[in-house]
Amino acid sequence: MTELLERIERYYDAVPRRFARVEECGPFTLFLGEPGGWVYYGRPRLGGTGGFDAVDVAAATGRLRDLGLPEVLEWVDETTPGLRGAVQDEGSLSVEELPLLVLDEDTGDGVAPCALPPGVRVRLLGPADEAAVAAGRAVSELGFGSAGTARGPQGTRERDARLRPPQRRVLDLLGQGAVRMAVAESETHGVLAVGRTLPIDGVSEVMGVATLPSARRRGLGAAVTRALTDDARALGVGTVFLTASSPEVARVYSRVGFRQVATAFAAEGRDRP
Hints:
The protein is of the alpha+beta class. It has eight helices and eleven strands.
């Protein structure tokens, strides 16, 4: 287990270094995006041996705030067990607990197969799929804006109202294979579910799996996850993992082959007056 979590920690450190500026702040590494752009965070320094206290937490979040960036810290409790207490002592952050699940070398053939509704297919996207990339982003916004797994009223009309051209940077990353994106799309209704991975050095995280609320409970998120994990395996990725937004969502992933191995935490600054 220690080796597995170390692999994941190296991945957590490597991914944002490809896209963000990096600054060390006490026992934290801060990954700095641009204000209003892609959001990054601070994490415990890879390989660090020091402890954490409320002063360290305040210094890191204060630096992010001074740069006009979200005050976000992320960590895995089993590898940095003292950080949760330091965050609680600092007192200004809201803390979210996220089950960390893995589909690694010991879990067999991968995510269990799932039947798709008639007229729906799942496919990987490339840089020429601008319309599907744009629709996927809108589905993601609506899916994550409506927590849980229950069906909701937001559908294709709300998705289409949010459509905007994808960033050139995203299309370039798809073309390079640095980002892998899959969608479930209907012949008549277009993109209904989306997800992505970023494979690095034999490890990949399944991220951003979201289903249009009106299309939930049809196996679309599981099908997208299956496509992404199959793609990762084909690329030679040995360790595939994800963090679930809640125990309820974790149970959904456990039914398709993932197992919980640890607990991740995300701490975010509350709105300030």
